[in-house]
Structures are given as C-alpha cells and as structure tokens.
Structure to design on (941 residues):
C-alpha cells in the first residue's frame, strides 16, 4: 500500500531549512472520526531504523519536522485497530501534507489483554498548562471544583474563587466556547468532573485584543475544559439528591444536549453545605457585613446555550437565578504596630446576608467570511440584598488595660438594576494582507439603592474614671439612605498596518479609546430621635395636628456627589512576527479627567486633569515546539477612588472614622513577568518556571491615627517603595513503569508594604515559600496519592521589631480509591494541617478526614447509592492571618463541622451502545472498570 504525498505550500527558508521536510497528516476511523493519541512512527526504508515519532492530537492530527528527503516507512498503531504501515518518498518540498489515513477496526478477538499505557499528567506548552483529568481521580459525583483542588498550581478559595499559578481565573470555557460568561464558579461547582478529558490553564489577551489584533494591555487567565471524545453528539446528564445529619441537604442536576457543534445546558444546585453553585456578586454592590465566611444556604438555576452554523454565525449566552442566605460568626484579634509598643483589639461579630439575583449575558458572533467579524454582547442583572450585623469591640491600650468597649448594629436593604452591551467589528483587507482595523463601543447603566439603619454605643472605660465606676457612653443611632447611579460609554478604534512585504512580519499598530463615566452618589444620614418607634424611614417627627415633619439629614455625616470621569488612551506599537519569535512593544498616552461636585459645599469640589504614560512589551521565543520563553512588561496608571478623594469625614462608626484626601496622585504600576516552559515527549516530563514582579509608584495607602480610647481615624496618602514579587516552579514526570508518577510545585513570594500609625512610618517586608511535592501510584484496581506540603512566612517591621513573626504551615493530603468488579467503590481523603507562630489560641493541628462508600446499580451501573462523611474526626477550623504595615490580624470564623449524608444519583446518556464516549462504557460518566481492568487514563490509547 502506498500513499501519495501532497505538497501543500512552500516558502522561502534559509539554506539549512531547505534541506529538511515537515510532514503532517491525520488518522481517522471508518466513520471519519479522529483517532486521538494514536502512535505514529517514521522508520528508515533501508534498515527500519527509528527516525521520528509522535502521537496524534485531539483532532487526530500528527506532525513531524526536520526530516531529510528520502524513502521511509510510516507506521501507525491504535488499540483495537489493525496496525498500519506504508512506504512513502519525501522529496525536497518543504511541507508535505498526507491525505487522511483510514485505520480499520481489528477483527481478532483477544482472550485477554492488559495494556499498561499512561497519559501525561501535566503538559506545558507556551502560554498553556494542560492537565490530564484521568490522572487526578475524584469521588463519584464529584464536580469540576473537586478536580481543580487536586491539580498542582491550582487553588480554590473558601469563597470558590479559582487561582492558577497565582493568577485569578476569570472564565471557564467548554471546548473553547464560553460557559456562563465571566462566572467560572458555575462550571466548577456544577459540571461533573468525570465528563472532562483535559483541563487547560491558558494565559491570553483580552477578548477585545483577540478580536481586533491590537493589544489593549488587559490579560486574563482562563480554564478550558475538553470533554471526553464522543460527547459532542447526544444527551447526557446527572441528577443527585442527599440528606444528612444536622439537617444538611443537597440536590443538583445538569442536563446537556450536544449536536453538530451546538450545545445547551440546564443546571440547578440547592444545598446548605457551602457549595455555592455561582459567584455571589452582591458583595461588590452592597454593604454585606459577613464577607465570604460562615455557612451558606444557596439555590440556583441556570441555562447556557451556544448554537449556530459552524463558525459563520454563533448565538450564545446564559440566564441565571440565584439565592443565598449566609450566616457568619467571627472572632478576631488585632495588634496595632507602633514604634516601641502595640495596642490590641478583640472583636466578636455576627452577621446574616441574604441575596436574590437574576442576570443574563448573551453573545452573537457573525463571521460572514474570513475578512469580517461582528460581535454583539448585551447583558442585564437584577440584584436584591438584605443584611444585618452586630459587633462588639474591646480595645486594650499598651499596658493591656481595657480602654473602651463599642457595640454596633446595622441593618441594610438594597436593590440594584443594571444593563449594558458591547459591539465589536473588525475587518481585514482582502487586497492588502496584514492591514486591518476595528471599531468597538460599550455602554453600561447601573442604579443601586440601599437603605441602612445603624446604632453604636461607645463607652470610654478609662477616661476621667480610673475605677470604671461611671463609664462615659457615646450613643449614635442613625438611618442611612444611600443611592448610587451611573452611566458609562466607551468607544475604540484600532488600526494595524504591515511594513513592507507582509511575509517579513513587521507591523505598526495604533489604537484610540475614550471612556466617559457619570457616577452619582447620595449618602443621607439621619439621626434617629431617642426611643423612635414610628416605623417611618427616613425618620419623621410629629408636628401640630399630628402631621409628620421630615427629619433633616445631619450635614456632618451626609454628602451628595456628582462625579464625572473621562479617560482616554492613545496607543502606538510595533509588532514583529517570525517563525520562532513574536515581539510587541509600544507606548500608551493616558490623559484622565476627574470632576467631583459636592452639592452641599462647593469648597470641597474636585476638578483635575492628569496625564500618564503606559509602556508595554510582549516577547515570546520558541526554542522548539516543546520549549519556549515569554517576557511581558506592562505599565498601567490607576486613579484613586472617590472614597479616597472625598474630604468628607465619615464617622458613622465612632471607632473607625474615615476621611478622603483630594490631593492624592494617581498610582502607576509596573508589572514584569518571565515564563519558561519545556515538555519532553519521550520522557513525558513537564517543567515550568515563572517569575513576576510588581512595583507601584505613588501607591495609595492608609494612614491611621490611633487614640487611647481605641477609636481611630484613617486617611489616604501616596507613598513609594511598595512592591511584590513571586517565583514559581512546576515539575511533573511519570516513572518508567508507568504506574508511578511524581510532581512538585514550589512557590515563593516576597512583598514590601508601607503604613503609618500615629504619623510613624512602618515598612513591612514579608517573605513566603511553599513546597508541595506529590507522588501517585495507580495499579490495576486502586489508586493512591500522597501530597505533603510546607510553607514558611516571615514578617519584618522597621517600627516595632519585637512584632516580627514567623509562621509555619505544614501538613499533607492523602487520597485513596479502591474499586471492585461489582460496582462497589471506597474513596477517602485525609488532610492534615498544622500551624505555629500565630497569636495564642489561634495555632491549629487538625485532621480533616472525608470518606465515601458507594455502590452502583442497574445493568448500566447508572444509579449510585453513596454514604458520605465530612470531617469524620470533627476537627475542622477556619483560621487565617493578615499582615499589613499597620497591624496583624488573626481571625477565626464559623464553618461546617462533621456531618454524614446519604446520596442517590442517576446518570443518563443517549449515545447508544458502541457509540459512547470514553468513561461511559460502564455506568455512564465515570463508570468503573471491571476487576483487573485498567484504571482511568490507562485504557485504550
């Protein structure tokens, strides 16, 4: 059998490259489906000596480079298919593309076959880190978040926020398509982990920059989930419900329909086990008193879709309703740092935050041809919030004497209505290769109304009363009527012009962006009369004849501002593209206008123009297909917020008074990142090294004036010398026998912060290093993984060196799974965590042990009954430390403790026998293998 080699294209190369050939092709089955990770080898026709080798990618494509002209034997092998070999002759054509190669299913029935293959756990490629999902086993019914927690370099916070290699993940994609817009937690907390074949962490330019081709200086880190092969046609989904001790409950479902590149997903999540199925954005709109801590009961329903005709026109989007009820109890100890002494505060707080949200994000992408692209993105959201809080603060002076006590309480009701949209059009000139332009526009409207009532009883225990016999109280009982409403409109134009012959890869880029925002804020504060019980707000008094007379706002606490911002960016750059290198460099001029009108006092108006510049640099060099280095630099200017600028004194909390500074300068941030990655196909070894440093000029910090009775006044000032740097290394490689694999993740961070207490400058230098190795053993019917960890954090202060502290955090995690041929699965994870160096009573030594025993039923094993236990030893605690140049905080908050739960889940699909994706062969997604069969990731390759 012989194949006809087809030359695709040729281009001028240097003399050395003219003597080699690049070969590519694809492997398909009888139905035209690509064969993934098939082995392809090129042998010498003369003596069958090995010349080159590779595996096919997700599209069944293989590529080999730098092959000398001559006669060769091409071999291909794939489990379950007949091996193929063919001869071919390569001439001096630079690039050769073969017709798709058909591989036929094997007709030989094997009595027994045990295959000991292995997929690469981690692969690093330029700006992408790719994880093989089957290398990180999770319990039955696990969601993507459970998988993320096991990936080296990826962290999931207590609020569900995802960071990868120190960067916040802004989106999760499904096979390259957006899934619930900018809320990655919808995918991480609702999609089953066993649907996923690969997980890619990608650092990329913004959506605007990718569409226009002109860098706008905005980067993002996203996660792309690749579904298992064959899951792009048909219905599939899961439904699960459970009930446990302490009235814990959960219920969730997801239904997915895929056909011809289209997708529709319906999902729901209801529980009181802190498994928020979405990002709770109310904290960014309203005064929520509990933060993200505590115990949350949540409910959510969502619909996501992406349909269209190939890539010509795509219509997608999502709508979602969510509801939360969070209760938080916090115990806090704070040490304020001064030159030769410290003062202390003990704070106890209870809060409850309830929210309802309904939002929609939509997208229309039209590509009538390869030269024109139009994208339209409308969105809206409705948000409602109710919060209440009580807080007790005891302040102790330098002699540890009880100086004051403050009791506060607040109730807040808020509504928010928002809508907006964005349009982007880009065009590439057909008759002038490399020339392109784009036009874009964005509009956003927001209206936030919030009403708050608060009280404060502040008692000075030491003032004029050494025996504490006649405590002096200060009472403050207020009603706040807050309203903010804003409009924002943006327009942008970009142009790309090639310099000379486009094949030389030289380009000039230009862009202009104008952004105008109207932001209006009214804060009206009313002092409530003693024993006020009329129930009318804003408050009133009873006048003659029983008429109601409105109470006037207190001018000391109230303010009404009309704020206008006009920001422009004029950006020019040069881009150079070669076979192995890509360079972008340029400069942006950023004029910014800020205007703030104080309706009640014209002397406090703010009106100013500031001109800034922002250089940028991106450079990438590829040593080979598996090895590359990147260097990125970005300078960016940012304006102070209006809260930081407004000179109105906010004394609604007598112990924490705040006043803005109208003389603040904009801060300028320098950001430099260097990243090197290398992947060895032969040893399956992955290495990544990344360094990042940020330095801020005119950084805006808090300057605090402390008083003996425990109250404080905070102002804002500009300082220099604030910086932060981190260094990260990731390594992964399987051992030769393919059952063992090793990985290691090292992370270091150093930062310098500046603070002022009582006009004394304190410089705080913090250094942290963490080590997180891991080793995994995967024999035939069970899996074991051990991942120890250790971190060291030191803090050095210039003002109070006796306050310098070193904190050690150490422990480890063990994961184990055992499977039987009759569908019984036992899985457990044990997490040991210990700390030293915290304040007395805050150091921990805890064991967190979770376990699951599950049994699959029905012929297809699609029904699963499971018994789960969370925190079997009942030792869970939540403690964290925050270190600044002004103070050190140790905080403990309430959390879920031990509970048992029985769950019942059902998986379904319509793929049909013989047409099921990998992982569905036995019992739907995540179906278990029979006794002696290979574990996930070790089967058909």
């Amino acid at each position: 059998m012989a194949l006809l080699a087809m030359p695709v294209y040729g281009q001028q190369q240097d003399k050395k490259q003219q003597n080699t050939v690049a070969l590519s092709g694809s492997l398909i089955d009888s139905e035209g489906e690509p064969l993934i990770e098939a082995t392809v080898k090129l042998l010498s026709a003369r003596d069958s000596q090995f010349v080159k080798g590779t595996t096919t990618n997700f599209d069944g494509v293989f590529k080999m480079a730098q092959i000398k002209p001559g006669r060769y034997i091409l071999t291909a092998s794939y489990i379950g298919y007949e091996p193929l070999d063919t001869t071919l002759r390569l001439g001096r054509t630079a690039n050769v593309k073969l017709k798709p190669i058909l591989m036929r299913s094997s007709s030989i029935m094997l009595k027994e076959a045990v295959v000991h293959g292995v997929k690469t756990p981690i692969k690093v490629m330029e700006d992408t880190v790719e994880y093989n999902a089957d290398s990180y086993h999770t319990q039955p019914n696990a969601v993507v978040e459970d998988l993320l927690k096991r990936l080296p370099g990826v962290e999931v916070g207590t609020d569900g926020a995802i960071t990868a290699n120190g960067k916040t993940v802004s989106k999760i994609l499904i096979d390259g398509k957006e899934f619930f817009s900018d809320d990655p937690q919808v995918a991480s907390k609702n999609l089953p982990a066993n649907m996923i074949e690969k997980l890619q962490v990608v650092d990329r330019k913004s959506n605007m920059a990718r569409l226009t081709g002109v860098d706008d200086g905005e980067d993002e880190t996203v996660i792309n989930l690749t579904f298992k092969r064959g899951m792009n046609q048909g219905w599939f989904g899961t439904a699960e419900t459970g009930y446990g001790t302490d009235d814990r409950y959960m219920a969730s479902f997801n239904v997915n329909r895929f056909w011809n590149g289209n997708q529709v997903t319906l999902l729901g999540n209801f529980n009181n086990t802190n498994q928020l199925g979405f990002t709770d954005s109310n904290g960014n709109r309203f005064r929520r008193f509990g933060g993200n801590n505590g115990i949350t009961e949540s409910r959510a329903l969502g619909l996501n879709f992406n349909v269209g005709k190939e890539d010509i026109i795509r219509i997608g989007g999502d709508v979602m309703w969510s509801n939360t009820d969070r209760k938080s109890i916090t115990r806090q100890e704070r040490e304020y740092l001064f030159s030769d002494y410290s003062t202390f505060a003990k704070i106890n707080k209870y809060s409850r935050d309830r929210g309802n949200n309904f939002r929609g994000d939509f997208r229309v992408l039209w590509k009538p041809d390869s030269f024109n692209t139009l994208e339209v993105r409308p969105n809206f959201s409705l948000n409602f919030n109710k919060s209440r809080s009580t807080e007790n603060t005891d302040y102790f002076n330098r002699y540890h004497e009880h100086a004051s006590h403050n009791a506060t309480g607040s109730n807040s009701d808020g509504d928010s209505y928002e809508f907006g949209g964005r349009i982007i059009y880009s065009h590439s000139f057909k008759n002038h290769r490399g020339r392109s332009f784009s036009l874009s526009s964005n509009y956003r409207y927001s209206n936030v109304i919030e009403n708050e009532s608060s009280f404060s009883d502040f008692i000075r225990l030491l003032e004029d009363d050494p025996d504490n016999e006649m405590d002096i109280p200060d009472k403050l009982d207020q009603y706040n009527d807050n309203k903010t409403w804003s409009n924002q409109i943006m327009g942008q134009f970009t142009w790309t012009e090639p310099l000379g012959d486009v094949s030389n890869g030289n380009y000039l880029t230009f862009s202009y962006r104008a952004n105008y925002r109207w932001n209006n804020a009214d804060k009206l504060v009313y002092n409530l009369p003693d024993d006020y019980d009329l129930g009318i707000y804003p408050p009133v008094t009873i006048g003659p004849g029983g008429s109601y007379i409105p109470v006037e706002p207190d001018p000391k606490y109230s303010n009404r501002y009309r704020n206008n911002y006009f920001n422009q960016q004029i950006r020019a750059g040069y881009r150079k593209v070669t076979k192995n290198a890509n360079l972008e460099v340029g400069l942006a001029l950023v004029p910014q206008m800020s205007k703030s009108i104080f309706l009640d006092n014209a002397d406090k108006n703010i009106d100013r123009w500031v001109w800034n510049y922002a250089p940028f640099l991106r450079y990438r060099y590829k040593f080979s297909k598996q090895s590359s280095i990147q260097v990125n630099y970005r300078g960016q200017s940012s304006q102070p917020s209006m809260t930081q600028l407004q000179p109105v004194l906010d004394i609604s909390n007598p112990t924490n008074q705040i006043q803005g500074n109208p003389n603040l300068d904009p801060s300028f941030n320098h950001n430099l990142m260097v990243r090197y990655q290398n992947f060895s196909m032969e040893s399956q070894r992955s290495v990544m090294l990344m360094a990042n440093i940020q330095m801020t000029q005119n950084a805006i910090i808090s300057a605090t004036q402390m008083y003996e009775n425990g109250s404080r006044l905070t102002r804002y000032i500009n300082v220099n010398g604030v910086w932060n740097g981190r260094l990260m290394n990731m390594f992964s490689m399987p051992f030769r026998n393919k059952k063992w694999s090793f990985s290691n993740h090292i992370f270091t961070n150093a930062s310098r912060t500046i603070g002022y207490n009582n006009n004394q400058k304190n410089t705080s230098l913090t250094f942290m290093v963490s080590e997180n190795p891991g080793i995994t053993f995967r024999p035939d019917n069970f899996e074991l993984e051990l991942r120890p960890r250790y971190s060291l954090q030191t803090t050095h202060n210039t003002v109070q060196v006796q306050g310098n502290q070193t904190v050690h955090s150490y422990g480890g995690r063990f994961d184990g799974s055992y499977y039987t041929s009759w569908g019984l699965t036992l899985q457990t994870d044990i997490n040991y965590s210990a700390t030293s160096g915290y304040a007395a009573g805050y150091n921990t030594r805890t064991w967190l042990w979770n376990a699951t025993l599950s049994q699959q039923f029905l012929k297809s094993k699609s029904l699963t009954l499971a018994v789960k236990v969370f925190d079997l030893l009942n030792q869970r605690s939540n403690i964290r430390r925050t270190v600044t140049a002004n103070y050190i905080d140790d905080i403990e908050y309430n959390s879920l403790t031990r509970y048992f739960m029985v769950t019942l889940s059902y998986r379904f699909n319509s793929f049909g026998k013989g047409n099921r994706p990998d992982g569905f062969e036995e019992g739907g997604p995540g179906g278990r293998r029979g006794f002696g069969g290979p574990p996930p990731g070790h089967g058909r390759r």
